[in-house]
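Exercise: predict the fold of this chain.
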Amino acid sequence: LVGAETLGATLVPSGSGQTERQIILIQDFKSTVIFSTPSYALTIAEKAMELGINLRESPLRIGVFGAEPWSEEMRREIEERLGIVAMESYGLTEMGGPGVAFSCSEKRGLHINEDHFIAEIIDPVTEEPLPLGEEGELVLTAIQRRAMPLIRYRVRDLTRLYREPCDCGRTSLKMDRVAARSDDMLIVNGVNLYPSQIESILLEIPEVSPQYVIIVSKRGYLDRLAIDVEARREFYDQGEEKLKEIEGKIQNRIKGIIGLSAHVRIVPYKVIERSEGKAKRVIDQRH
């Protein structure tokens, strides 16, 4: 926020929720930048479409998103629906909020602010340090905090660190987009599963929307994996046979890529509850 004010930007803190109000604020203030979670950006885009408002024609030109894992496919979806350039901000409350790392115009990884943070990668199981380029759990040390310094703080986010020249001109250490959280991992019939893996598969299927929920339950001694995903409105009315075809396509992709059998159900538009903050993607009924 201080950086935005230093640049001379007018800030409109609006909180979360009241999606229609957010759209009104965008229109009234002629906002050029939006800062939210990526899943909520899609919720705003959907609500605007319901209201007959084309946000692609609004002054919005940049989106800054973070606070939850998201895929490159979701970035493209947001850019297409809102007509903006989607950037990524990485931070956490314990480290003072946003500001640990930020993507640049090249959109290939995030530059870590090394004058404020020391970043490391460890093996999440053995806790041993890993070399640059290997994926593991991010560990951060805040070197300019006085009241509550954090030393080698385990973030639980899975990523990798690397140092290579960037066409934007920066030379700082970079991190990949967060692939998942180590504590988000599900073990389904002995197979490690991250929600982001399911999301990447779904966003490759043009007939379905980015709105989904993963449900894990028990059937006897085995785990049962089920996925509810919304069809895009233009596809849902094409009949049961078409929906079964889409469900089969998704099931085959999940089986081929992840190695798990999943029960996929296509549901109507707006059946899945929308998030006004971080999206709730998993319901684990085994416990």
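Check your answer against the key: Residues 185-284 form a domain with the GMP Synthetase; Chain A, domain 3 fold (CATH 3.30.300.30).
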